[in-house]
Amino acid sequence: MISFFITYIVPIATLAATIWIPIKIKWEQEYSSLLDFYRSLDYAIAFQGVIQFFFNDCGRDMSRVKAEYKRRFIEEVESKPGDIDKENCLHFQRRVLAQFFWQLNECAKSFSIGKRRVTNDFTNAEAKLLKILIYMGQAIDDDPLLYKDISSDALSPKPARLKGQNKFLGQLYQILKQSKRFMDGQ
């Protein structure tokens, strides 16, 4: 019985631990980096910029987000291509937040971090922000002026199916909209 345990069970357990521990460490490092960025000034500036856009430019009306985002994009990016104020440009703020939430969604989908931990660490205020970001992303997808091939200035056709970051923002929105207003104090 002991020889069976030593011969079969211990190597299988060792192999499982050898595989699981580095994966767990990787996801914990990823999540830790996201939490650090969440507390950073860059996140706060981007968050504040998008919220101010929604309140001031859109008048808290979700149906105006696409048109107002296009107007701001033309004003801040298209009209001065070599002189963009990257810190105060709504387009770059949207990109920073969209990338952050895409990575957060990847962590929420991972077995190691999971939806439960994300809903404990984040609030439904982020779900509301995601909704604004989704509409901003749709403005880009729907308008050939905003959706450009980054390899050149030539206009790119709109993809037949929406995929990519907007898809993942939508998934995370579904997770976070069910979370509490305030973080759990664990």
Characteristics of this structure?
single chain
End-to-end separation: 44 Å
Order of helices and strands: HHHHHHH
Overall pLDDT score: 82
Q: Structural class, judged by helices and strands? A: mainly alpha
Question: Which spans have pLDDT < 50 for at least 5 consecutive residues?
Answer: 149-160
Number of helices: 7
Q: Which word captures the global form?
A: elongated
| Residue share in β-strands | under 5%
**Major sheet, described briefly?**
none
Which percent range fits the helix content? 55-70%
Radius of gyration: 21 Å
**What is the tally of beta strands?**
0
SSE arrangement:
Layout: H1 2-38, H2 41-57, H3 65-78, H4 90-109, H5 114-121, H6 124-142, H7 165-176
Helix pairs in contact: 1-4, 2-4, 3-6, 4-5, 4-7, 6-7
Please give a structural write-up.
There is one protein chain. By secondary structure, the chain is mostly helical. Helix content is 68%, strand content 0%. The chain starts with a helix and ends in a 10-residue tail after the last helix. Residues 149-160 have low confidence and may be disordered.
Q: What's this model, at a glance?
A:
The protein has 186 residues and is mainly alpha-helical. The chain contains seven helices and no strands. It is elongated, with a radius of gyration of 21 Å.
